[in-house]
Amino acid sequence: MFNCISDCISVRIRDNVKGCRIVQLLWSDTLMRRAFFVLQPFLTDVWKLNFTHAAAIVNIWEGTSLMLPAVFQLLADKYLGYFKVVVISTMSSTLGIVFVTMSLPPVLGMGPCKKYKEECVGDGQRGLLYLGVALTAIGRGGLTVSVPCLHDEQRSEGGQFYLCGLVQKHVSTAENHVVYAVGLVIISLISSWTFRFGFPAIFAAIVTVTFLSGWSAYTKTGPKHKGSLLATLFKAFAPCRNHQESEGSRKESSFIRHITGVSINFIILGIVSALGNTFFVSQANQMERKFLFMTIPLAVFQLPMLIAAAAAPCLCAMCAFLQCANQYCNFCVPRCLRVIPSILGVGVAMVHAILCCVVAAAVVKRKHAMWLVFQFYLVACVDVFFRSSIEAYYHAQAPSRLRDYHDVYTDFVTGVGYFSSVVLVAMVGRNWFGETVGESRLDRYYWLLAVLATLSLVGFWVMAQFCLFRNVKPPTNTDADGVDKESSCCFGG
């Protein structure tokens, strides 16, 4: 009996060590994203770029990193497996942040020029920065979709490594918020650009070495051919579809077509979210930031966004409670009520987008940066409500094989919004935008986004009647007690 207990303890310790080595990859990614929050002012203050040009670089980086998870999910499922995707993504992300750090003038300055001035930035630095930004986008895209799946694969026989559902969701969220807060404090206290980008680079290198040191201990599974969001999307809209496909495949294709129909209205949410790391940061950088006896660091404006992000588990838990109530009260609650919480959540996200743009337009002429706190909070709420609501809808209504695709879908749609932001700014052109924030009519642009968000809200509500409510189905995949485990809450298992 003593040997049995000893073996169980050793298995638990070994599994926990593997889990920490894998999860820390997300910590490194979180810290890197906090550093990139100040990429916009770095490009405008050091490189002396037009603020719309700098915003385009940041939005293309963000949009690419959000759309790539769908591609990496397809590669992992059909060709590589999640372990290989994690290795490729980790190396790409680490090399990327290292290249970004090397592009700084004090690191690879031109001859004696080591200062943060435009004349000290040569073609070599520009090339390294663009290459580093591209590699970090690839790394982020791969890590987002592959790390949780690789984490779940590390299960020893008789072990309890796999944390499913609510527990896994809260543990991972709490860990990321702690790293978020630590990174916020570090980046806020340090004014040196070299350290702001150098610290995440050093941390990423340490994490990568630690992860690779356990190479032989990881469980490595090959492609599982379970399907991916892109594969299902291609199949749903293929011009020559197989009419002999199974009932499950038809339901999956129907669900994808329905939710794709309303996705056009979600693009505005990505466009508004793109303001947070670009135009809002540029405004704060140009405004008065003295408060009492200190100057507020730019990174502190992530604090309202952290507060909004911390509310995500509460929102998802509320959706879970409503879904459970609808399930257990199925005999007295109309079937359409199962999707009302999630659909209302998307509507709330759009309302927050409208409020964010209205508030931003109203305070654009203010002189002190503290006026921007509320719009930073609102822009974070847009993403929080959208993600929580889509997650709830997927787990309540999607076929069982598609329920884990909600994050990939949300990222992809939001990424399209980031790219659309670049296109929209280019279309408006010099009519509203000058070289700096002070020379631009940002209020007009914000009012335009408020109008577009209002039209999207109306369009979503109309299209939801035909695409989402029509797709409502009763609970399925019940166990012996008749309880639908997978659709009873919005947390994946």
TrEMBL record:
Keywords, sorted A to Z: Membrane, Transmembrane, Transmembrane helix
Coiled coil location: none
The keyword Transit peptide appears for this protein: no
Transmembrane segments: 51-75, 82-108, 178-195, 201-218, 259-281, 301-322, 343-363, 408-433, 445-464
Sequence similarity: Belongs to the major facilitator superfamily. Phosphate:H(+) symporter (TC 2.A.1.9) family.
Protein name: Protein NRT1/ PTR FAMILY 5.11-like
Organism in which the protein naturally occurs: Salvia divinorum
